[in-house]
């Protein structure tokens, strides 16, 4: 089990004995003597369990002869290449492991893992003492503004092991050169090690649209060039950022060429093209074996983020792992999985599989489907033809019975579907029995839904005779001939017509009455609101107005003649009055 947890194959008994023999030969010195004393029982024999534990420890650790000179042992890892290499040492507490990122080792040594401990020891450089008179810079070293080259310490300008780190993305660029030789600084009166920054520089340009992301060049390649003011500004800033970054890399060419490793984060084709070109005077090449990516998540490209990444890369990780507890958990998980699989294999299926239908049942299901489809579509000729061609009786029982308990036969289904033509065809041509009842004890006539369907039973009784079937037992009323049915239909139509005429006349009278009542109500409402009206007489005209009205439209000659007549009548009136006196 422990061999499999470490990604190795299990060994047989012969291989196990050979490994134990090699283990006995390799153990020597005081540590071996102590182990042998501890492993022997009261009879002077080694127990097999102790030998197995010792062998596993032997395979899990790599040790030199002298424990004081080489105290660090590397743990075996599983398959794949994890980003962190874990080591252990007898000087550490039990189950304590030290982790170092694989990215800080050369590719060939990280793959072989033969001399990783010695390489780690070589990379642990002694801190550099501070100068006797340390001049205070105008700004802090991590303030974001690099010092001029003339003010840089000469001993760190191009000598000593150092790393180059840079990040670019979203219009932000940050680059830094950090020496692997730490420096001693005093914080609150206590000396501490701090990273030595050789040079650093940050740039920022507006190249991505807010709340949208993506570079302007990528947008242009996908949708074509935009002509807005913002797109033009972003396009200009992209080129300006590229020029600034390439100028900075050219300025740092000496440091970059002598750097031990180059840690680069550049996502997207535009950002990678900015760093790796191709362009004239190219500094970085993607074929450079020193280039590494950051084996952990990083944030926006800033100087503080580069310093955090450098500290994360160069600082040893300490963790506590209980191998025994992990092995026990793995064993318990394997046992639980095996138990669950055994229970699943032995458990009975919750829902039993339905039995396979027989040939007779399949034929009955097929006939049921076809007959029900013909009846529901009122295809009486097709229904009779199907019964005859397949030699099916008119009282065929639909299958399965539990799904057709209300209408178990074709006659029941025709009656329930109000298909009078199918009922007539089944009774008169196919010879269906009307006295057959369903599981509720009802005959086909009793579940018929309308009068024409019920009349089809009475017409069939008249046509077949009372002796053909027990019609009374089936609930069918007295026989009805076709002539009587037509007379009844004609009589009902006449009665219906007279009733409709009377109803039409009644509705007309009712509408007239309602119309009169509405008119009276409107008249009463107006009288109540405004009172009764009075007919106004034509105003009386004066003598002058009467003369003008009479003379209107006359010529001068006619008007003079009218005046003479009026004067003559007036004179005659005066004479009569005088004679009367």
UniProtKB/TrEMBL annotation:
Major location category of this protein: cytoplasm
GO cellular component: cytoplasm
InterPro entries per UniProt: Ankyrin_rpt (IPR002110), Ankyrin_rpt-contain_sf (IPR036770), ANKZ1/VMS1 (IPR047139), VLRF1/Vms1 (IPR041175)
Key word Oxidoreductase present: no
Biased segments, Polar residues type: 213-231
Domain called VLRF1: residue spans: 159-316
ANK repeats: 406-439
Gene3D superfamilies documented for this protein: Ankyrin repeat-containing domain
Active-site residues, record numbering mapped to chain: 216
Keywords: ANK repeat, Coiled coil, Cytoplasm, Endonuclease, Hydrolase, Nuclease, Repeat
Spans annotated as Disordered: 1-89, 124-156, 206-232, 337-369, 477-581
UniProt superkingdom: Eukaryota
Gene Ontology MF, one: endonuclease activity
Biological process according to GO: ERAD pathway
UniProt feature, compositional bias: Basic and acidic residues: 484-581
Localization per record: Cytoplasm
Signal peptide start-end: none
UniProt domain comment: The VLRF1 domain mediates binding to the 60S ribosomal subunit.
Family classification: Belongs to the ANKZF1/VMS1 family.
Protein name per the record: VLRF1 domain-containing protein
Organism lineage string: Eukaryota, Fungi, Dikarya, Ascomycota, Pezizomycotina
